Amino acid sequence: MNDLRSTVLIVDDDTAGREVLVSILEADGYDLAMAENGYQAIEVAKAILPDIILLDVMMPGMDGFETCRRIRSDPSIAEVPILFLTALDDRQSLLSGLDAGADDFISKPPDRYELRARLLGISRLNRYRKLLEERQNLETTHQQLLLAYDKTIEGWSHAMDLRDKETEGHTRRVTELTKKLAGLFGIHGDELMHIQRGALLHDMGKLGIPDSVLLKPDKLTESEWELMRKHPQMAYDMLYPIEYLRPALDIPLCHHEKWDGTGYPRGLKGTDIPLSARIFAVVDVWDALTSDRPYRKAWSREKTLTFIQEQSGIHFDPQVVDLFSKVILEITTVLIPE
Q1: Which of 130, 179, 247, 251 has its CA 20 to 30 A from that of 12?
Q2: Where are the alpha helices (DSSP H) in 187-291?
């Protein structure tokens, strides 16, 4: 008995011939369908999409060779395995069958055990082919879904930037620069994709900060700063329920941690801070200082780089600062404001 039921289309103009095949196969659990000629076989095959076709060669009107050729020319049924049933045993007939697209031959009248063995082999191969196609389709669908997710993330980050006109474009710039720097640390593949998503989402927690605090033109009060410092945890709490984003949450949660342990929200120190967040922290400060703000003009790159170097071992990971210092002034200016 097959572990998965396969549908077999029996095509034979002879009633007795069809009945012999049914008597052999019905005990093996196949779903059996019938056709009395080639024209009917094509219509039935298109309607039920069988797993295997048992096709008689000698039929009136349209013989098995022509039927096979027509099946192979129809995209909807072209890949269905075809097993010829024939009393012909000359070499030319076999070659004609192969040329028409047959997968195998068996002599009439069929030997019960040989037929069952041939069908079992063909049905298994066809089943494996279908499983492979399904997996490929599933992988394609998965990639399309991830692309849609990433477009949604980009939309969220853009909406955050639009909320604060003064920092518009900040997320895009820090994301691209963080990816470049992470790549220099040997981070690639899925891990780099998680970093990209985390960078895009780094300020999502600010959705929980009132405009009166987030957009306040004056210096924040201590209570307002206390609220502002909650935005990394807010981002984590907001995004953690989305399972596929969990590997990307190191940056949203930890990008305000400091190397010396004086950062927030958890006061992590040194290498307890995830590497992605240590990389992002340098890039985030770089972009903030080299961009205009309502309360100050942008710093020069040289001044900003000096400040970052002074903060090595205090705010920033010294290893990240060293690599950043070597490459930042050489990175294309497309990502860095003048």
Answers
A1: 130
A2: 189-200, 211-214, 222-228, 231-239, 250-254, 275-289
Q: How many CA atoms lie within 13 A of 314 on its CB side?
A: 6
Provide the CATH topology of domain 7-136: Rossmann fold (3.40.50)
So what's the pLDDT on residue 4? 58
Residue 32, class by beta-carbon neighbours within 10 Å (0-12 exposed, 13-18 middle, 19+ buried)?
middle
Going through 124-249 in order, the beta strands assigned E by DSSP cover none
Beta strand spans in the chain (E)? 7-11, 31-35, 52-56, 82-86, 104-107
Confidence category of residue 270, pLDDT binned at 50, 70, 90 = very high
Per-residue pLDDT tens over the stretch 142-165: 677 777 777 878 777 777 766 665
Query: Do the Cβ atoms of 101 and 72 come closer than 8 Å?
Result: yes
What's the CATH architecture for 164-335? Orthogonal Bundle (1.10)
Beta bridge partners of 155: none
Any idea of the CA torsion for 219, 200, 276, 244, to the nearest 10 degrees?
Answer: 130
In this predicted structure, the answer to whether residue 334 has a pLDDT above a threshold of 50 is no
The secondary element (H helix, E strand) that includes residue 65 is helix 64-72
Name 26's Cβ contacts closer than 8 Å, sequence gap at least 6. 32
Domain boundaries, the chain: 7-136, 164-335
Sequence-distant (≥ 6) Cβ neighbours of residue 223 within 8 angstroms: none
Q: How far apart are the first and last CA of the chain?
A: 74
Distance, CA of 161 to CA of 178 (rounded, Å): 17
Strands 31-35 and 7-11: what pairing? parallel
> What tens digit of pLDDT does each residue of 78-99 get?
989 898 888 766 566 777 777 8
